[in-house]
Prior knowledge:
- The chain is mainly alpha-helical.
- The chain is 64% helix and 0% strand.
- The chain contains two helices and no strands.
- It has helices spanning 2-47, 73-77.
- The longest helix is centred in the first third of the chain and has 46 residues, at 2-47.
- It starts with a helix and ends with a helix.
- The mean pLDDT is 84.
Amino acid sequence: MIYNFFNGFKKGFTEFGHNISLIVNTILLLFVYIFGVGPTSVFAKIVGKHFLEKKLNKNDTYWNDLDLGKKDVEDYYRQF
């Protein structure tokens, strides 16, 4: 009987934790989206900024030329 009590107690606390985390995460993520992601995307559309280039370049590929040969070799040894 006492074993059933502790199993039920554990199950109740587990469900309570899941429910509280669902509520808190929903509120926090909604807050972040409304005050962070939303205004950033609206501002980016107004300015014309594209965070992900979806257009193909002249060779029908998504690869971009990085022009890595412009620095001296010594600059690549100590990047940080």
